Amino acid sequence: MLDLRFNGLIPGLLFCALISLAASYFGAFQFLQVHGLGALTLAIVMGMVLGNICHKNSVWTVDPGINFSKHNLLRIGIVLYGFRLTLQDIVGVGLTGLFSDVLVLCSTFFLALFIGIKVLKLQRDCVILIGAGSSICGAAAIMAADGVVEADAEQVSVAVSTVVVFGSAAIFLYPILYRLNLSWHLISGGANAFGIYAGSTIHEVAQVVAAGRSISPEVANVAVITKMVRVMMLAPFLLLLPLLLSSKSAASNPELRKQLSIPWFAFFFTGTALFNSLHIFPARLVEMLVQVDTLMLAMAMAALGFTTKLSSVRQAGVRPLLLALILFIWLIIGGAIISKLVFWL
Question: By CB count within 10 A, which of 77, 243, 245, 264 is most buried?
């Protein structure tokens, strides 16, 4: 049984690995690097192109490996990403990153409730899912929040589609914003400040990694740390969500409590970075782990792109997309204001 399951993963894993290797090869070209197209960004683009030109019947055998790459390899890759960091890097983010995350999360989610329910007249469950995905960690937050609101499958699909669309757009937009910020100085504090801004405002962990790596390793490191702090906020958010909605408390509902998802990989990521600070592993081994990590993350990017279907975007309709667009604009502009305010304080 285990062998059959493993064999079912192989085609999809090989498919993602090939895209990853191709993206790594082209991502080494200086012309593409200058324009912010690193291996991770190219992997998601290649995956999106192939995912939208291949017919379902011809690629069905890759689905198990694609899903494994998108979920499991991404989390393993994030844990291994800790070998790029040390305790000094984490301390460097400090309370500034924490305050930015809290303010962005709260402002974005409550803005979603107001705009989505009061203005756009969307169903409450759909608004909650889009708000959670935009304010915390994309599709993972949507699936976790669905354990609380128990929305229809169609609403979950719509919410995931919206955050994937705008989160993917952020991969290409934030390197441009970084270059503009070098001239305009709207967010002071250099790479550290922009990394906090990116980590506290981009939807998915994978998208943060891709956007950050397209800018610089320094921005990427700070952005990932900030993002992981934001991901850790998913657990208290899920516990508070029933109370915020004046619905039945999760504490009194055993079935609901079982569905609450704690992002353990975020804590393992922190543990890896702390372990790396002890410098127990030889430098050569750490370098090898970083290379393996890059391969896993690129495979996850390829899988994420492959499952981003334009047809799902069309099915979402105008109003959910409009809500997600408003939240995306708020994350960019409001997040910049919050970052500036936090650094000023």
Answer: 77
Alpha helix ranges (H) inside 82-189: 87-113, 124-132, 139-149, 153-184
Q: Is 221 helix (H, G, I), strand (E, B) or coil?
A: helix
**Plot region of 55 (φ>0 → left; ψ -120 to 50 → alpha; else → beta):** beta
* 91 Cβ neighbours under 8 A, 6+ residues apart: none
Give the whole-angstrom CA distance, residue 245 versus residue 108. Answer: 16
Domain count, the chain: 1
CA angle 228, 230, 233 (to 5 degrees): 115
Phi, psi of 132 (to 5 degrees): -65, -45
Question: Residue 7 and residue 25: Cα distance in Å, rounded?
Answer: 27
SS3 state of residue 187: coil
Decide if 81 contacts 209 (C-beta within 8 A).
yes
The SS3 call for residue 260 is: coil
pTM over 0.85: no
Residue 327 near residue 131 (C-beta atoms within 8 A): yes
**Which residues have a Cβ under 8 Å from the Cβ of 233 and sit 6 or more positions away?**
101, 102, 105, 136
> pLDDT (tens digit, 9 = 90+) per residue, 69-118?
888 888 888 788 888 878 777 777 788 899 999 999 999 999 999 999 99
The CA distance from 183 to 121, in Å, is 40
Residue 189 has pLDDT above 90, yes or no: no
Give the pLDDT score at 248: 45
CA–CA dist 145, 157 (Å, integer): 13
Name the residue among 206, 233, 267, 209 with its Cα closest to residue 103.
Answer: 233
Give φ, ψ of 178 to 5 degrees: -65, -45
Separation between Cα atoms, residue 262 and residue 268, nearest integer Å:
12
Which of helix, strand or coil describes residue 229? helix
* CA–CA gap between residue 65 and residue 53 (Å, rounded): 19
Higher-confidence residue of 74 and 287: namely 287
